[in-house]
Amino acid sequence: MLNWDKYVSKASAGLLEFGIRKIFEAAQKLEAQGSRIIHLELGRPDFDTPCHIKNAAISALEAGEVHYTSNWGLPALREAIASYVQRKTGVSYNPHTETLVTVGGSEAVFLAFAALLDPGDEVLVGVPAYPTYLNVPQFFGARVVSFECPVHLNFAPDPDDIRKKVSERTKLLVLNTPNNPTGSVYPADVLEELCRIACENDLIVLSDEIYCELVYEGTHVSPVVFPGMRQRTIILNGLSKTYSMTGWRVGYAVGPAALLTPMYKVHQYNTACAPSFCQIGAITALTSDQSCVDVMRNEFKRRRDLITSYLNQVKGFTAPTPQGAFYAFPRVSVPNMSDVDVAFYLLEKAGVALVPGSFFGAPGFLRLSYASSTENLKSAGERIIEAMAQL
Ligand SMILES: Cc1ncc(COP(=O)(O)O)c(C=O)c1O
Known about the structure:
three-stranded antiparallel sheet; alpha/beta; Aspartate Aminotransferase, domain 2; binds pyridoxal-5'-phosphate; 14% strand
């Protein structure tokens, strides 16, 4: 038997397993034993991808669009991305030098870290956070410096707190609004102040805007609209959440050419390009009628209100109303039980899969995705109320 550990790189050994998958796998085990589990742990819309988008990809396949594309992405898709960003933010980008198509938003995030981080660099990340932001910088020898996004500020950060955490080594500020896991949408004045901090301290902002179409009150504001930010922001986005295309794996980065070019270099060695026919579907998604986005957003809003009304009746839960994305993030307090204990208790007792806040760096909370049917949400709500009442 080989000493396997000897062969595994320290960087990969240091990566924590993606916690959300742990719950998913435990749920699957219970299902294999005959339990009916309601899945509220995964962050994926439950809708089918709209037909006109699927048809575009099907036609592309039939027409033989089965080869590598430019590693930057199809020119027509890059133009569609630049005009989408212009439409949404008023800021224009050169599609040929300032956009990069990636394999999902996930690859865009990874490339940004790979292209920008050196060992010893510091990355400011708001907690609770999407696990990638807590774990991947360390893969490149950088250090995550977290700042709080506390519940009493509706999970938005306090700029003064961030100011105190900036050091000479700080290179990146990660912003993710609307936020996974909290559903928070940062108020524009807070965002503006964060951008001021980035300018004053010469930081690059990685702005993860993957939930930008899912804002239920008001509209999404991108950091690039604030003075001095266009040159120091990389927008990370993708089609997964907006058009229910999680399986298509199309994402993108938009930003200054000097920052996208090193990302492109890593991308060439990594995935080369996003799938050709998926890119063609993505062109249709971004350039055709957007009413499917409104329909899904309205439905998510209705479900948000529904799940919040249930969560507010749960013993031990405090549930602020999320303003965006499709996650609720109630605080849970049960004597002698951690959030991880409660999540596994609810999985086994109530048959509801949700994710402990600890997996997002925030013990004492639970994350539920309400991207699930009304029937599932009602049933999950009732089961959680009943199971928690028994504690
Ligand atoms: C905040 C955030 N960023 C990026 C991603 C990556 O999404 P994808 O790779 O499907 O585009 C996700 C997915 O859950 C996310 O929640």
